[in-house]
Design goal:
This protein has about 260 residues and is an alpha/beta fold. It has a single domain, classed as Rossmann fold (3-Layer(aba) Sandwich). It has ten helices and seven strands. It has a seven-stranded mixed β-sheet, sandwiched between helices. The chain starts with 11 loop residues before the first helix and ends with a helix.
Length: about 260
């Protein structure tokens, strides 16, 4: 049976190594899931990465933060039929909510909640849970991940949309020992090779790549309080730098065009 405990390791090499073995099971699980083209979210390739990362741990519960129209939640429900899927969405936009609820109504293992995942997920967290965060973003997502990992309960936390060059990613690269990213060259190349098997519409020559995850293993690289202070400080600095960056061009432009200059 796939997912034996001796395979339950969480690092880039182990995920790449077991991807081939897990792909047939994943394809069978999602073969009847309708694809939503032109809508941003975690698609089949991103979900396969999550599946390959946490399937060997056999989580009894998966916590999802951010579901929008529910495509990712539907794939979770089908890929982990024995697990409880607790999905939290902050946005109560009626169209998205109705679409998600209609898709997921047949699945008894799914619980759809609305509200702030930063308040709800810590209350629902259980030992061995896998956590998928697709909102909030960047530093807010890191603070949520930190809060959950500090309990020692999750087997892993994956955060979506962690692009190179973003302040949140730079922070993880500098301060979160043991973290890795789904777009690390060797890992990304392995999943690119499997792209057409995961999604028949996949174009390996396309400039559009799968949005990267940051992968945070169980445990923390430093104390909770130290990491929290560093996150708060790094976020404050990034906000100041961003505001200065927006202000300077206007200031310089004003000086150039000032006839009294």
């Amino acid at each position: 049976m796939h997912g034996a405990r001796d395979e339950a390791t969480f690092n880039a090499a182990s995920i790449a190594g077991r991807a081939d073995r897990l792909l047939p099971d994943f394809r069978r699980a999602i073969e009847s899931v309708p694809r939503e083209r032109g809508f941003k979210g975690i698609g089949s390739r991103g979900m396969f990465f999550f599946y390959a990362a946490v399937r060997p741990f056999g989580p009894k519960q998966i916590l999802e933060s951010g579901r929008m129209r529910g495509e990712s939640t539907l794939m979770l429900a089908r890929c982990f039929p024995q697990a409880r899927i607790v999905s939290v969405e902050f946005d109560l936009e009626p169209t998205h909510a109705a679409m998600a609820e209609a898709k997921l109504r047949p699945y008894a293992n799914v619980e759809l909640l609305y509200g702030d995942s930063r308040e709800i997920l810590p209350q629902r967290l259980q030992a061995g849970d896998a956590v998928l965060i697709d909102g909030p973003k960047e530093f807010r997502a890191l603070k949520l991940a930190l809060q959950l990992l500090a309990t020692g309960k999750p087997c892993a936390v994956l955060i979506h949309d962690f692009y190179r060059g973003q302040p949140g990613r730079t922070f993880v690269e500098r301060h979160w020992t043991g973290a890795f990213f789904s777009d690390d060259p060797a890992l990304a190349a392995r999943f690119r090779e499997l792209g057409s098997q995961i999604d028949p519409a996949y174009d390996p020559d396309s400039k559009h790549t799968t949005s990267p995850f940051v992968c945070l293993p169980s445990g923390l690289p430093a104390s909770y309080s130290i990491l929290l202070i560093k996150i708060i400080w790094a976020r404050a600095v990034s906000i100041v730098v961003s505001k200065i960056g927006k202000f300077l061009p206007h200031t310089l432009s004003g000086k150039v065009s000032d006839p009294e200059g």
